């Protein structure tokens, strides 16, 4: 990843990593998100994946937040020495809301549908970029 791309990526990500904004989301969506299962670190790991996704007009009913958070964990594990790449479903949902995605709770489950477009080829490219960024010398 070139320095220009890295700087752009960080400018997108770090304004979202604000504890006050996260607390607001946790209060507003308390009926969907378990605040006790959310850490700022998990939100940060989710953002690596979510910032590569784009919104769509309708909800993606084929995938739930739980399946998407597994993809986010896989992306996070592509970063060398990341350590524990676990992301709770609630942290992933909170990060998605911070990114501006809309949610539609799935009745009887802790999962939601999102208005998200996440293509496999984009995810694979992101994994490669993150791996290369964190393994090359700056």
Structural commentary:
The chain has 138 residues and is mainly alpha-helical. It has one domain (3-135). The protein is built from six helices and four strands, in the order αααβααβββα. It has a two-stranded antiparallel sheet. It has a two-stranded antiparallel sheet with strand order 2-3. Strand 2 (103-105) and strand 3 (112-114) form a beta hairpin. Helix 2 (19-28) packs across helix 5, helix 3 (40-50) crosses helix 4 and helix 4 packs parallel to helix 6. The longest helix has 16 residues, at 120-135. The model has no long low-confidence stretch (mean pLDDT 82).
Helix/strand structural class: mainly alpha
Our count of helices gives 6
Helix content: 40-55%
Instruction: Spell out the helices and strands N to C.
Output: HHHEHHEEEH
Shape field? globular
Distance between the termini: 10 Å
Number of domains: 1
What's the overall average pLDDT, rounded?
82
What's the main sheet like? 2 strands, antiparallel
Unreliable spans: none
Order the strands across the largest sheet as they lie in space: 1-4
Instruction: List the quaternary state of the chains.
Output: single chain
Query: Measured on Cα atoms, how large is the radius of gyration?
Result: 15 Å
Strand content: 5-15%
Query: How many strand units?
Result: 4
């Amino acid at each position: 990843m070139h320095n220009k791309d890295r700087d752009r990526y960080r400018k997108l990500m770090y304004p979202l990593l604000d504890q006050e904004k996260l607390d607001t989301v946790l209060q507003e969506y308390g009926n969907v998100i378990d605040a006790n299962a959310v850490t700022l670190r998990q939100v940060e790991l989710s953002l690596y994946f979510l910032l590569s996704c784009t919104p769509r007009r309708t909800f993606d009913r084929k995938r739930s937040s739980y399946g998407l958070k597994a993809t986010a964990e896989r992306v996070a594990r592509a970063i060398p020495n990341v350590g524990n790449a676990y992301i709770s479903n609630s942290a992933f949902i909170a990060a998605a809301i911070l990114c501006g995605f809309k949610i539609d709770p799935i009745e009887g489950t802790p999962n939601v549908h999102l208005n998200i477009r996440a293509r496999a080829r984009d995810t694979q490219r992101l994994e490669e970029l993150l791996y290369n960024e964190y393994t090359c010398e700056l």
